[in-house]
Design a protein that fits this description.
Length: 76
């Protein structure tokens, strides 16, 4: 089995809707690169993909996450 791992992104649903609350990871990342990667994964690996988050690590698309402001370049 192949697992498709897609990138997270800096732009998140809370940038547009600050009161959105916990959101499934598959819909939380709204930047253009993240959305394209997610669309690709959904099309070619519909049941075998995840998101690699700088804050949470590996996330299944339906995992609820809360807003965070950490990127891969941050120390710690």
């Amino acid at each position: 089995m192949t697992l498709c791992v897609v990138t997270c992104g800096k732009k998140k649903i809370w940038d547009r809707h600050p009161v959105a609350g916990p959101t499934p990871a598959g819909g939380a990342y709204i930047g253009s690169l993240a959305r394209k990667c997610i669309e690709y994964a959904e099309q070619f690996y519909p049941n075998h993909w995840c998101i690699l988050s700088a804050n949470y690590g590996f996330l299944l698309p339906d995992t609820l996450i809360e807003n965070y402001n950490i990127t891969w370049g941050d120390e710690g």
